[in-house]
Amino acid sequence: MSERAITAVAAGTLYLVATPIGNLEDITGRALRVLREVDVIACEDTRHTRTLLNHFGITTKTLSYHEHNERERAAELAARIAAGASVAVVSDAGTPGINDPGFRLVRACVERGLNVVPVPGATAFVSALVASGLPTDEFYFAGFLPPRQHARRLRLAALGDLNATLVFYEAPHRIADALSDAREILGEREAAVARELTKLHEEIARGRLTDLVARFSGQTPARGEMVLVIDRRRIAVAEAGEQPTPDIAALVAAFESEGLDPRAALKRAARELGLNRDEAYRRLVAARAQAKRE
Ligand code: SAM
């Protein structure tokens, strides 16, 4: 056993404590000891964390540290740590700081030269990635995709030529749209949707984006927490059995070279291809992203 594993919690230290993402058995022995021994636990939601603490018979004081009071609380907690307190920070699930509060407090402590100690455990995107069956040697964790379609498509286009497996968090009511935009902007690729990890209804749906669009676009909306993992490699058009899309980017460029402004060029290209303007714009973004990758 290493020395750190048997050392009591240190004064003047911030502990970043990971908690389970569903299955309570995923709490680590070290997390329990730190949560029991620190002076105070800063929680994203005190009621939520109290349930976890009660389950393990831990009675440590809690206070709230969430996205709405993060800025003031970070300064206040860093001052307490500087005065000798030991503080644990936890989020509702998984690792604090990963799409959850934590960063500002760590920053405040680092700036004051205070001790910051990670207490590792569950993180949804790591579990999803390793179980996806997609390459794990290089990956890009992009957090949540933007909720609005236009911004989401631009984000996907910007990530499309990375030589890395792409990993996103996604809300159940947006998974079908996210998959369908990914299919259109990134082209056909292998992907996986990891749902309800570590819970009773855990499911890892694997397949091509087209299959997953079909799977998640049904009448019954998808439920539960989800991670979307997408391969870096586009499946060749012939292999995917697709019809090549008309070259809208070339058409727009041609009309622009005839003197039309970009908006008019797109409008005319849309008319030529029999598309409405939104659809033409979507295809243009996809075609340009594709051209950048090739
Ligand atoms: N801090 C957390 C972590 O370390 O993974 C992430 C918090 S973020 C606000 C919540 C998102 O994480 C969910 O919308 C979902 O995308 C993902 N997530 C959390 N728990 C999950 C689970 N059990 N199965 C699949 N995805 C999960």
What does this structure look like?
This protein has helices spanning about 5, 30-35, 45-55, 70-80, 105-110, 125-130, 150-160, 175-185, 210-215, 235-240, 250-255, 260-275, 275-294; strands spanning about 15, 40-45, 60-65, 85-90, 115-120, 140-145, 165-170, 190-195, 205-210, 225-230. With about 290 residues, the chain is an alpha/beta fold. It has 3 domains: about 10-120, Tetrapyrrole methylase, N-terminal domain (Cobalt-precorrin-4 Transmethylase, domain 1), CATH 3.40.1010.10; about 125-240, Tetrapyrrole methylase, C-terminal domain (Methyltransferase, Cobalt-precorrin-4 Transmethylase, Domain 2), CATH 3.30.950.10; about 250-294. A hairpin with a 7-residue loop joins strand 8 and strand 9 (about 205-210). Helix 4 (about 70-80) packs parallel to helix 5 (about 105-110) and helix 7 packs across helix 8. S-adenosylmethionine (SAM) binds near residues 93 and 225.
Annotate the secondary structure layout.
Elements lengths: L2 H4 L6 E5 L11 H9 L2 E4 L2 H10 L5 E4 L5 H13 L3 E5 L12 H9 L3 E5 L4 H9 L6 E6 L4 H11 L5 E6 L4 H12 L3 E6 L7 E6 H8 L9 E5 L6 H4 L7 H10 L4 H12 L3 H17 L1
This protein binds S-adenosylmethionine (SAM).
The site of S-adenosylmethionine (SAM) has 24 residues, from α6, β7, β8 and β10.
